[in-house]
Amino acid sequence: MEKIGKQTIKFNTPPTILDCSSIVGPKESDGPLAKYFDKTLDDEFWGEKTWEKAESKIIKETVNTVISKSGISTNEIDCIFAGDLLNQCISSCFGLREENIPFFGVFGACSTFVEALSLGAITIEGYANNVICATSSHFCSAEKQFRFPLELGNQRPQTSQWTVTGAGAAVLSKNGNGPYITHITPGKIVDLGITDSNNMGAAMAPAFSDTLITHFLDTGRNPSYYDAIISGDLGYIGKEIAIDILKSQGYNIKSNYNDCGVLIFDKEVQDTHSGGSGCACCATVFSGYLFNQLKNKKLKKILLIATGALTNSTTAAQGESIPGIAHAISIETSI
Q: What is the pLDDT of residues 89-107, one digit of tens each?
């Protein structure tokens, strides 16, 4: 691999995304992408006593599913990169503690899935043959930690987003026939002073724009190079802000740009306000819908940019602003 431009890495031997898996909750299973997920749940507990235990079970079963689908034995997996939204990434740690595979806990808020894929790809170029990248989130556990107890029934403003219940996982391999991760553009922390925790899209859109422009400058590519440019979870409001920012910088992305938070729910029917969010938003949409499109060559080149709001209840209580982060990976079906 080699560094090109300011902060992009180009892989000389691009790793293959061998297979993916995804499990989602009941609200997601009522959405427009339901047929692309490996499993959909009837309730948020999935037989467990707490939402946190349910989330751990979801990521565990998603990882086991992708191992089974890939045809690679557990002994052939060199390491796992995984993370979630809960304190100290407990969903990933407790969910995967019995896998007996070297584990790297990763946190990038809702950008964690692409961060994991980026680190996994670097590891493949280094020492590993096969790596798993996985993330999860759960609406109920996230609301409980970041906002209000669900039993209060608080009103949600129209700028708010709905944390996706689910998990996505991918196996990266040194061997395979694609789709390939050809480039990664790690993002910088961008903070424009947004303090409204019910408007994460506005907080993350500047980071998305910064990473996307950097990717274009580093690679010499433009928006038309890709069949689709997909952000992680800016939602409807963040998506429109991002389009406006990019337009002001001379980039028109409107024709081939969409957002995982927009795709996963039917906004009008499901009353999800500004769309989906959470670590599982990008992870499930990619592992389900987008990977299917790549494998069937309906999409041949995509740029996946997962966005994250680097905040928690402590910083919010102390009046801090919400820093944003966005990591990008270029995925192509042929090299």
A: 999 999 999 999 999 999 9
